[in-house]
């Protein structure tokens, strides 16, 4: 019968020498790097690190700049027409260029209410 003994300075899982903690970097499970949306929110409600899917029409180009419509809904998973992936990273909205056809990006300012917020975005 063997007893598992934790020896300080060695990984609990593979015996690799370590200076802190109980597991080496290989055995440590990766920390979550982004928050996952649990429900549908508006683009304007997204928090740093959030990513989700919205309709193509939420993305438009005006004055040589890409924008997102703040009131567009963003879902945690791709569903229906929500196939364009958007992420808020370092305070900036990114649109996954793999999930939108450049030709489908609306050109010009959309005709929307005064209260609509628009956010600068970048194709990545
Ligand atoms: Zn290890």
Characterization of this structure:
By secondary structure, the chain is mostly beta strands. The chain folds into two domains: 1-31, no CATH class; 41-123, no CATH class. The protein has no helices and nine strands. The protein has strands spanning 41-42, 51-55, 59-62, 65-69, 73-74, 82-89, 92-95, 106-107, 118-123. The chain has a seven-stranded mixed sheet, with no helix packed on it. It starts with 40 loop residues before the first strand and ends with a strand. The relative contact order is 0.19. Zinc ion is lined by residues 11, 13-14, 16, 23-24, 26-27. Zinc ion binds at residues 11, 13-14, 16, 23-24, 26-27.
Features:
0% helix, 7-stranded mixed β-sheet, binds zinc ion, 2 domains, 9 strands, 124 residues
- Strands of the largest sheet, in order across it? 2-6-7-9-4-3-8
Query: Any low-confidence stretches, pLDDT <50, length ≥5?
Result: none
Number of domains: 2
Shape: elongated
Nutshell version of this structure?
The chain contains no helices and nine strands. With 124 residues, the protein is mainly beta.
What topology does this entry show?
Layout: E1 41-42, E2 51-55, E3 59-62, E4 65-69, E5 73-74, E6 82-89, E7 92-95, E8 106-107, E9 118-123
Parallel strand pairs: 3-8, 7-9
Antiparallel strand pairs: 1-5, 2-6, 3-4, 4-9, 6-7
Bound molecules: zinc ion.
């Amino acid at each position: 019968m063997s007893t598992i003994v934790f020896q300080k300075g060695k990984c609990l899982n593979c015996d690799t020498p370590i200076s802190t903690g109980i597991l080496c970097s290989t055995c440590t499970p990766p920390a979550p790097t982004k928050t996952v949306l649990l429900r549908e929110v508006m683009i304007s409600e997204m928090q740093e690190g959030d990513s989700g899917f919205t309709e193509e029409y939420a993305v438009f180009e005006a004055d040589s700049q890409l924008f997102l419509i703040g009131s567009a809904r963003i879902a945690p998973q791709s569903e229906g027409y929500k196939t364009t992936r958007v992420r808020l990273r370092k305070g900036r909205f990114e649109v996954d260029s793999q999930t939108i056809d450049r030709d489908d990006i609306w050109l010009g300012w959309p005709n929307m209410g005064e209260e609509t917020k628009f956010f600068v975005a970048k194709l990545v």
